[in-house]
Amino acid sequence: MKRILLLRGAELIVFAFLATIPLLVVNPYALGLLTLLAIYGILLIGLDVTVGYLGQVNLAHVAFLGLGAYAAGLVVTKLGMGMVPALLAAALVGLVLGGLLALPALRLEGPQFALATLSFAALSTTALNELEALTGGAQGLSLSRPPILGHTLTPPLFYWLCMVLLALVWMLMRNLLASQWGRAFEALRDSPIATDAMGVGTYKHKVAAFALGSSLGGLAGGLYAFNFQYLQPQSFTYDLMIILLLGVVLGGRKSLWGAFVGATVIVLLPNLLSNRLLFQIFSGLGFAGALAAGVQGLMKKSTRPFQALAPVVAMGLLVVGGLFVENTEDWRKAIFALMLFSVVVGLPEGIMGFLALFLAKLFRVPHAPLPEPADLDTMLPIRPADGSALLVLADLKRYFGGVKAVDGLSMTVRAGTIHGLIGPNGSGKSTVVNVISGLYTPTAGTMQLRGVTLPIGSLYSVAQAGVARTFQNLQLFGELTALENVLVALKGVYRNPLPMVLLGLARREERTAQAQALALLELIGLREQALVKAKDLTYGAQRFLEIARALARKPDLLILDEPAAGLAHPDVLQQIEFIQRIHQRGITIILIEHHMDVVSELCDTVTVLDGGRIIAEGTPDEVKRHPKVVEAYLGQPPQPELPGGAEPLPA
Amino acid sequence: MNAQIIGQMAVSGALMGLVYALIAYGFQLTFATSKSINFGQGELVMISAFFSLTLTNLGFPYWAMVPGGLLFGALMGLVVERAGVRLALEQKSEGWILLSIIIGLFFFSAAENIWGRDDRPFPTPISADPIHILGVDVTRLELSVAVGVFAIMGLIELFKRRTLLGKAFEAVSADRDAAELMGISSTRTVMLSYGLSGSVAALAGILVSPITTVGPTMASALILKAFSVAVVAGLDSGFGVVLVGMFLGALESLASFYLGSGWREAPGLILLILALALRPNGVFGKATIRKV
After folding, report:
1. Considering the entire predicted model, what is its pTM?
2. What is the structure's pLDDT at A639?
3. Residue A245 and residue B283: Cα distance in Å, rounded?
4. Which pLDDT value is given to residue B292?
5. Tens digit of pLDDT for each residue in A111-143?
6. Closest partner CB to B262 (pick from A116, A130, A307)
7. Chain A residues touching residue B102 (CB < 8 angstroms)
8. Torsion of CA A163, A168, A174, A180, to 10 degrees
9. Where in A148-277 does DSSP place strands (E)?
10. How many angstroms separate the most distant Cα atoms in chain A?
11. Which of A100, A423, A554, B282 has the smallest number of Cβ neighbours within 10 A?
12. Can you tell me the ipTM of this complex?
């Protein structure tokens, strides 16, 4: 409770303070800055969805600001409509165009995504400039602020409108980002493959995140238009985009407060640059901060030398440059560059990321208490192990060019069994798993789950059909906690539609989900570490967590891809015990493993692959004695007469 | 008559497109070794051109100015690698995108203040008189672009195939970890690729400046098209960039003729978004198999 009170209290105080300012101060300049603060606040919250939560460098946000501004301007000037439809149109333009841009950008990561957004931004500037009949081109577009409900919007009224909208956006986004949606966005950033394999659907969430962020950009654009009442295509260029990125990164990613701090910085920057004394004070403070942090980082050896020194050098350049340069305005881009560089390298979590840690320690803010674990028997009822055919593979083939990785595999996995899949390296085990789980499309053959044809070539559809898997090379969502990793994958709890989530009316199902996730964590012995980030867990715990996350899908078939790989002996024993516990719940398991002892201990049936074909099948003991298996693993037994008269090697 | 105009526009556009191809080739060099590209490459083109202009104004002859400019470009490429790329690569993050943008912004601002905001002519001993070949007019200047582009690309490819250092470069491109295990320092190889990429950018600046003039904003249009070429062809397509570069150059020259010069940029950008949507690995790129 204390945590909620502190957080909500801080929000209330800040917004109440901001709302009363126009009553106390009548300085039009200050009011103008505050109005801009609200507008940039909305803009940056939108940008943070893609840059912070999706973790992609988005260079198109400024284009949505511009397109939104022009949309609002045109609705007022050409259609003669009021402010409310204009603002709605602005947000809608962002939503639709953002969604459209996200569609082709879907498959893209990192640099390609940045390039696609950069091209879109350049294209939209071109369009705004060239569609002169509509936008007035380089001449610009003038508009006036239409009245709302008969009230002329004086500067204080307009300020309040912007603030109300900011508060509204703040509240809705807080609810959304704390929900399953926000977690899905973050999961996407850490591992798109696992997100799909957990049945979350990268497609839907990436488009949704981008469209949502862009619609906020559009909305901010609408307010921008009514604030300045004059629009020019040149206002929405790459330069402004850099400043917006500076705001998000400096303020702190993945944080509403970060966006607010970033907006404050952006609004104050021009003043900072025009006042020499102020500039020197701030650059001096920045230098001192970088120096202190750098020295501390080096002493504790918590940062690399470059990370400690580079910000000091950049800030030092700023201080020295400030003494020699005649007009700081001329150098504003270099100043932005140096500031942004220092922050990206030295303070990657931004101001709020740093402050949040500090404040949490200062006030000893505890995490909200977790519910008691749910009853495992209710959430994951024991299934009958009737031995019927669950998964039937018939003549399955997967070729990579000329390589026949899987070459005509037929296999039946029976319900309630643990079915081992072994074979030497390169025998096609992983390819089989990747084909079943939908990562690869089979070259030929059929796959049936309970007599129903399994979807092919889509991790997401296969996951939806009831197959869950783990990954040989861990694919955890590193920045999420153990609990959140399980929550992302959890099936059958989240039912509330988006509007309910936005309004914060979905809290009860969140508690249910937490209880269920905790039960799964308890099953694999990680309940105590529920709030630890996945990337900070020990390697063994990470392997266990992968299994808990797959179990959250409540699957009919669980595929474990080398769950004991790289584990120390005690952890292997633990892992065996966990798998047995899962087996006891009647869940069918396909186990790929190299450790022969694990296979012997657990499996009911074992299929041995070599060169993409089955060479043996049976109980572990039968398989172990099979001559072909011995040959595949150990090679040909030494022939008595070797060519060249070489001595046979001693056995 | 009309066909002749189209031919003329296509040829001069294609020659211009070779410059995009050259910059795109610079992207390929660094992408091969480190899977990263310099988002501030345009600024590298621009400051190297300004530096070369200063060398010329100081009285250096053309043959001495070109290597000077290339050396400067290589140095700046190394600065980008050290300050913007290395840390992010060590952390396996994509921070290099933002950092290389930031360093580019710094170069831009520095150029604005050192050399001024205005566009300036770039003197060259190569004549701009047209020669009549196969019914179209081509200037020696435009031909010099083609010669320069093919010369440096040929040299670098020879270097990669014939020298030990070049083979190390290829080894890191093929498999970074395996190369490290064979005693090849991948950090040094990435440095080498950024140095080479910087030189390539500098040459692009030197070749294009006499035609377009030198100014702080000269590269912002160039770079978008170079991005398009690199992505449409594929970041590992080798000489594929040459074909795509010439095609795009011709296309935009025709677009600006028929749609108006403001739409010059549009075909490249649309092509880029389409290519990203339909063939993310490029027309000449290799499809990668996702592994888990």
Report:
1. 0.87
2. 57
3. 32
4. 64
5. 888 888 888 898 898 889 888 888 888 888 998
6. A130
7. 242, 337, 340-341, 344
8. -150
9. 230-231
10. 107
11. A100
12. 0.88
CB of A307 within 8 Å of a chain B CB? The answer is: yes
A381 burial level (CB within 10 Å; 0-12, 13-18, 19+): exposed
Residues A115/B282, Cβ–Cβ less than 8 Å:
no
Task: Determine if residue A5 is left, alpha or beta; phi over 0 gives left, psi from -120 to 50 gives alpha, anything else beta.
Answer: alpha
For tokens 């910085």, name the residue. A265
* B271 near A CB under 8 A: no
Contact A114 B39 (CB under 8 A): yes
Segments in A524-609 forming alpha helices (H) = 539-551, 569-584, 596-602
Q: Is A649 helix (H, G, I), strand (E, B) or coil?
A: coil
Query: Strand (E) positions, A92-186?
Result: 141-142
Q: pLDDT tens digits for A214-239?
A: 999 999 999 999 999 999 998 998 88
CB-nearest to A439 from B36, B108, B292 is B292
The answer to whether B197 touches B26, Cβ cutoff 8 Å, is yes
Question: Distance (Å, rounded) from C-alpha A272 to C-alpha A617?
Answer: 75
Residue type, B265: E
Evaluate if residue A646 carries a pLDDT over 50. no
Contacts of A307 in chain B (CB under 8 A): 87
B256 contacts on A by Cβ (under 8 Å): none
A507: number of Cβ within 10 Å: 12
How many Cα atoms occupy the beta-carbon half-sphere of A98 within 13 Å?
A: 36
Q: Which residues of B touch A310 (CB under 8 A)?
A: 83, 87
State the helix-helix crossing angle for A539-551 and A482-489, rounded to 10 degrees: 30
Q: In chain A, what residues touch B274 (CB-CB under 8 Å)?
A: 104
Q: Do B266 and A126 touch (CB under 8 A)?
A: yes
| Interface contact A138, partner B, CB < 8 A | no
A369-373, long-range: CB < 8 A, 24+ apart: A370/A483, A370/A514, A370/A518, A370/A530, A370/A531, A371/A511, A371/A514, A371/A515, A371/A518, A372/A515, A372/A518, A373/A515, A373/A518, A373/A519, A373/A521, A373/A522, A373/A527
CA distance A165 to chain B (A): 30
Phi, psi of B215, deg, nearest 5: -165, 160
- Which residue from B230, B238, B236, B242 is spatially nearest to B272, judged by alpha carbons? B230
CB-CB contact of A615 with A622 (8 Å):
no
- Amino acid letter, residue B148: G
Distance CA A90, CA A71 (A): 5
> pLDDT digits over B70-94, tens only?
999 999 999 999 998 988 888 877 7
Q: Measured between alpha carbons, how far is A516 from A523 in angstroms, rounded to an integer?
A: 11
Using alpha carbons only, what angle is made at residue B105 by residues B88 and A105, rounded to the nearest 5 degrees? Answer: 60
3-state SS, residue B258: helix
Relative to beta strand A418-422, strand A444-449 is unpaired
| Nearest by Cα to A511 from A367, A375, A376, A371 | A371
Beta strands in chain B (DSSP E): 130-133, 136-139
- Give CA–CA dist B115/B50, Å, rounded: 7
Give the mutation candidate from A97, A117, A123, A250 for the B interface (greatest B CB count, under 10 A): A123
Q: What is the DSSP letter of A522?
A: H
CB B264 within 8 A of CB B256: yes
Q: Which residues pair with A80 in a beta bridge?
A: none
CB of B79 less than 8 A from some CB of A: no
**Residues of B whose CB is below 8 A from A304:** 87, 90
**Could you say which DSSP state residue A448 is in?**
E
Report pLDDT digits (tens) over A42-52: 999 999 999 98
Strands A389-400 and A403-414, by their bridges, are antiparallel
Tokens 């333009």 sit at which residue? A93
DSSP code at position B120: B
